[in-house]
Amino acid sequence: MSETRSRIAHRVRRDPGIHFNELTRELDLAPGQVQYHLRKLEHADDVVEESLYGRTHYYTPEYGTWERGALAVLRRETARDVLVYLMTNGPSAPNTVTDGVGIARSTLEWHLDHLVEQDLVEKERDTRNRVTLVVTEPEETARMLRLVEPSVADRLVDRFTRLVDGLLGEPASGAH
User: Fold this and answer.
1) Are 159 and 102 in contact (CB under 8 A)?
2) Transmembrane ranges (predicted)?
3) Would you say 120 and 38 are in contact if contact means Cβ atoms under 8 Å apart?
4) DSSP secondary-structure letter at 170?
5) Are the CB atoms for 23 and 7 separated by under 8 Å?
6) Model confidence over 125-151: pLDDT tens digits?
């Protein structure tokens, strides 16, 4: 295996769910070079590619479907913040989460769509149709959280979104 391919494989092993742009940035390689070596790694079954939510993520083969989806979502700082809030505070109403995390309700809903789709969070309804957000697999989710740390670029995008929410004046716990 070439040195470049080994570096890419090592980075994917060390940082499961890393997305393509982050991989090229972190390794300071040309996109075409990374694509070429990733294809070789995929053909050798050393790397698994999965496109989720507008990004192509890379994993080693031991990660199953649920883990790959969880890691892709958790690479986004706001989704991580929501999940950490729920794990720390227990089942919570959406307005409580928006206030606790400091995000707009629309931002919470965008991230919740992905958290629910990847079976990380469940929306439970009571007899009066009030929603409570609940972490579905707390132990496994905690394990996934330990594996992922969003890149600086990912954090900047999430923080910019929060800034725009604040500038638009959408209340953090507004109804949507």
Assistant:
1) no
2) none
3) no
4) -
5) no
6) 999 999 999 999 999 999 998 888 654
